[in-house]
Amino acid sequence: MKGDIGVIGLAVMGQNLILNMNDHGYKVVAHNRTAEKVDEFLQGPAKGTNIVGAYSLQELVDKLESPRKIMLMVRAGDVVDSFIDKLVPLLDKGDIIIDGGNTNFPDTNRRVAALKEKGIHFIGSGVSGGEEGARFGPSIMPGGSPEAWPFVKPIFQAISAKTENDEPCCDWVGNDGAGHFVKMVHNGIEYGDMQLITEAYQFMKDGLGMTHDEMQSVFIEWNKTELNSYLVEITSDILGYKDTDGEPLVEKILDTAGQKGTGKWTGINALDMGIPLTLITESVFARCLSSLKDQRVEAEELFGKKESIVEGDKQVWIEALRQALLASKIISYAQGFMLMREASNENGWDLNYGNVALMWRGGCIIRSAFLSNIRDAYDIDSELSFLGSDSYFKGILENSMSAWRKVAAKSMEVGIPMPSMTSALTFLDGYTTARLPANLLQAQRDYFGAHTYERVDKPKGEFFHTNWTGKGGDVSSTTYNS
Q1: What are the positions of the active site (predicted)?
Q2: Is there a domain that residue 198 lies in?
Q3: 26 annotated to bind ligand
Q4: Helices (H), 257-292
Q5: Where would you tag: which of 27, 28, 187, 371 has the fewest CB atoms within 10 A of its CB?
Q6: Are the beta carbons of 280 and 267 closer than 8 angstroms?
């Protein structure tokens, strides 16, 4: 009996996905570039299962049912292209290659087109949930060649996480790089969520002078509210974890955050598409700022920086902080969905935003209770341009506004940096302001560069240039893109 699917790459994610597939009755053929890794896997975690090994790509191909389904769980970039180049001569028309890594979506666009010419189907699939998710049920976001989906669907939906209604957190996203784009946005929102939580933690620790046990209790309670989510849950675990000397381990971790690039890609794409992804972009910059550790230490001493204590009723401040975190979190998701909407329109993906929310409802790092409310919002209005306009989320934003402003203002007053939480509030203020000062900005552009402007008392699309000084001339440069 031949294998149902082959998996290349036996790092922890690859191994756990294979074990997950085996648990659901699928025969998996496992391959790694180093034969020792295959042996270690077969004699270790895969011992006693139906998983079989392949010590060459030819052996892998020979052991698979047709159409062959081969999933790459390797480092994104050139490694993926290298394996594709080696696999293609061994495959038949109609066979399927799947990239399950964190790939930048233009690479997936390119691979889908190139392999289509050779008669090979390609799927670029985001997989979220980390090691535990891969083993017991991740969120899976496949896109690429639609012809391949019926062959992969039973496997992916079987191994994916399930909602409380037993719905699989996996569905077809769209053509070409749609799956990897949605995974990229997922990771961008993840950056934003994590940064928001760290800002709340610093406000409690440095502003309110709370102990780690007190903060852990707060996050446990918050997880019983609309903030219920994986990241809030693990934060309470982290704050309660003690080192061997009984002190909180988190305070012994160097305050420099790493990143693998998906948050940066999200910000770059937002800039390319003209979407104000302010919160997520600030969260990326916050990680960049954290990496300047030595400079920050010197600057603190140079400026004599000290945070002031936040005075007042601690419980009142904790509730205000909860509301500010919740409202900011909504903006994080809202901006992410705005970016997906623009990408869908530009690329003709026809994304189903309710389905995206469903795919994120379980298994993934940003899984949270209110994703069900996001799905409901897009079920009511599939063309919803701003998540905050939905009645449920609009109500939360309006009810949280006073507390949100109070926290943002106090953070600036006492010197606690909260870049993502304050940028989220500033975004909403800008988004809900009918007339912004960009009229003056456009006048400046016309003054020094003759870039023209439109007038409120003339039809849109009609451009004007003013000789502001009497010396600039009447010839315009170019019309601007609004």
Answers
A1: 183, 190
A2: yes
A3: no
A4: 262-273, 278-290
A5: 27
A6: yes
Residue ranges in 304-352 assigned as alpha helix (H): 314-347
Q: pLDDT (tens digit, 9 = 90+) per residue, 139-157?
A: 999 999 999 999 999 999 9
What average pLDDT does this structure show over 428-439?
Answer: 97
Give the C-alpha separation, 213 to 360, whole Å.
30
> Catalytic pick from 69, 183, 329, 410?
183
Q: Which of 190, 205, 329, 410 is catalytic?
A: 190
pTM for the full model?
A: 0.91
Provide the CATH number for the domain around residue 467: 1.20.5.320
Adjacent-strand bridge partners of 141: 126
| 348-365: pLDDT as tens digits | 999 999 999 999 988 888
Active site residue 183: yes
Domain residues for the domain of 475 are 436-481
Any binding-site annotation on 129? yes
Same-domain check for residues 82 and 191: no
Q: Which of 116, 145, 172 is a domain's end point? A: 172
- Is 12 flagged in the annotation as binding? yes
Tokens describing residue 248: 């909180």
For 138, the 3-state DSSP assignment is coil
User: Is residue 254 packed enough to be buried (19+ CB in 10 Å), middle (13-18) or exposed (0-12)?
Assistant: exposed
CA angle 199, 213, 287 (to 5 degrees): 25
User: 475, 450 in Cβ contact below 8 A?
Assistant: yes
Active site includes 383? no
d(CA 112, CA 109): 5
